[in-house]
Amino acid sequence: MTATSPQSRARSSMRAALARDDYARAFDVLEHCDSAPSVVDFKENVVDALQQHFALKHVSFFAGATFHNVFGDIAPLTEGKTSKMLPEYRERWARYDVFGTPAATRQLVSSGVSSLAELTSLGPLPASAEAYVRHFLVATWRMETAAAMRVELPDGHLALVGMFDPKPDKLGISEVATLRLLSRQLSVICRSLPMSRSQAAVSRLSERQRQVVRLVADGLSNAQIAEALSLAEDSVKKYVSRILGLTGCQSRMELALLARSCRT
Q: What positions belong to coiled-coil segments (predicted)?
């Protein structure tokens, strides 16, 4: 008998739980997100899509360089009550988040999604995570449903999208299976995006504008750029002014730093 990996078993289970309407909902979310020009826009689109297509009002988007850094994100995107939950979460509960437990980590790595219902079905939670659920999520904020979706970001970074609701059955088997499908597909979309809107703006510049940006990044003056590109110096000034406006940069130095970050 051929052994199957946890990822293969998770995919098979997911396909069995999905109906035509679930695929349609997943497609709607992907359509909502696949035109995002940068990771910043992608975050906003994902949260908005989950609110629209899963009727989830309370959604957060945490990002970090490693899995455990995610919980310390200093500027997460929060919608609904998650924005009000954030100060207490940071001060007291981030280190005890139920989705940072070993069981949740295994689920997030193998299948892209972990839900509170699944975790409690596996057995008792660690005491600290149980306290987080009982005192923070349920007693304080009345959140009976909680789930996290893993999304891969550029440069090996990752995100956890938190979803919460007062109804205990808000995310059933089919919803969780749909989110697992979305975890993979959203990661594919996001991994190739520029991190910032300014970086996205650089990628949309014309070839001549990118030539000017590269020379600005190399420290050349307008006169030197004009000589290198066989342009009038006044034309170079207009190019630089236009590029500053398109990228939102306030100075040549800021533009040069942006251009260098785009090279890495």
A: none
